[in-house]
Amino acid sequence: MRGTAVPATTTGALGPADFFGELYISFWIPTAVLTAALVIKLPGIVKLWRDSLLRAVGGLLLLACCVFVFAVPSVIAWTNRTVGVPNVAAPWVYSLITAFCACCLLLIVAWRNGPADRSPATRRLVRWVVGVYAGVIVALWVLFVLADVPRERLRDLDTYYATTPFMREEILLYLVAHTAACLITFRLIRNWVRADGLDLWLRGGLKALGLGCALNLVFDASKLTAVVARWTGHDLDWLSTHVAPPVVALAAIFIAVGFILPHGGQYLRDRWRVRTSHRRLRPLYLLTRTVDGSRVPFALRATPELRLTRRETFIRDALLRLTRHLDEDLRRRAYDTALDLGHEPGRAKALAAAVTIQDAVATRKRSPDSGTTAALASGPLVFPGLAAGSGDLSGVGDLSGVGDLSGVGGLSGVGGLSGAPGRAVFPEFTVSSDFTGLLQDIEAVSLVLREPVEIEAVRALAAASRAESSVPTHE
């Protein structure tokens, strides 16, 4: 046989220093990235185990990790020594690669037909893929048993035994199976990435997967070229020994990124949106805290989503308590003023709401007990023309719908007051007709609170327009 003999590394136990000294960084970096991808995908795979697409993804990532772990030269030596058969790690690694190819093709079937497709044609295709690649794995072990490979090779087995009967066929078989799977996968991904309507992160993930498949084809080309060169009496072993390993390691990294990017990118984008919304609500949160001096309870283990929900709930509850103090007339005038100043309608609406809320907070601070609670707590309600406790209702106007008037100055349980005299007692009960929209647009309102100069300009012009409208005109 051709090639220079390399001293066997299986004699004696490997110490920690020897073991870690044999580790190839080009093997363990992709292993770490693939493991990270598997960990990210694992909860979804376990939760939705019946999803054939997720099962194929999980199997592909797991097998890819195993390929790189067992392809490390020091691990190859350990496997050979543990089993007690020289080069037995070769068919084992080849089998893992072949199973990886099968998972790639099953992933294609699931992607093309959808995980819910259980048609006879899909089931036949799945059985065909499983049957063919299971047969390839069996053939790999049969060929290894028939081959004569007594000398252990840790790094150059493919080229060292390229002309050995049965081992030659085994090497060619696993390379052809790997090449076929990579070609089919690359074509599918190339067609899919051109489709319209793909999410940015999904498109990026598909491009990474496509690049990984293309690099796998470079790996196959390097290996096949080196093997065929041995058949023709040439020596291109460096392609198999020094080019192929880093290329396939880079391919594995891109494949892992391809699976991580859609999931991880969406996760990071959602987290960024939540934190951004939480931060944008801070000005309005600080303003509404002054309504009654309360705040959102701090929870160290609260998730960002829970913190955002609590802040939104706190703000909306505070605005509900301010409802009776909201001046609808002020909001309309502020909105018209903001439009006159050149603001677009959405921003003008937010500026008007900010002016109205600030005014309502100030009103509540001046009279914190105003409204129904203050009126009931102060004792008898005094209406124009009605002395406290006199029983004379002649000046009150229409009191239909009042209900039972006994208890508080003879007027407790007030259900409604029709007529101008009765309404004058509750001047704060002017509820904004746009209050529902205000509760929905709290983020926009909070953002304009960062622009106090614009708010004060709108407030001043709105006050001026109110003063002008209140001046009586004389003919």
* Protein structure class: mainly alpha
Could you name the ranges where pLDDT drops below 50 across 5 or more consecutive residues? 1-23, 371-433
H and E order: HHHHHHHHHHHHHHHHHHH
Overall strand count: 0
| Main sheet overview | none
- Described by the principal axes of the CA atoms, the overall outline is elongated
> Roughly how many Å apart are the termini?
120 Å
Number of helices: 19
Helix content: 55-70%
Calculate the mean pLDDT score and round it.
Answer: 77
| Strand percentage | under 5%
Radius of gyration: 38 Å
Explained architecture:
- With 475 residues, the protein is mostly helical.
- It contains 19 helices and no strands.
- Helix 13 (328-340) packs antiparallel against helix 14.
- The longest helix has 44 residues, at 237-280.
- The protein starts with 15 loop residues before the first helix and ends in a 5-residue tail after the last helix.
List the helices and strands and how they pair.
Blueprint: H1 16-21, H2 25-47, H3 52-70, H4 73-83, H5 89-113, H6 120-146, H7 157-160, H8 167-193, H9 200-231, H10 237-280, H11 282-289, H12 304-321, H13 328-340, H14 345-366, H15 372-377, H16 420-423, H17 435-440, H18 442-448, H19 452-470
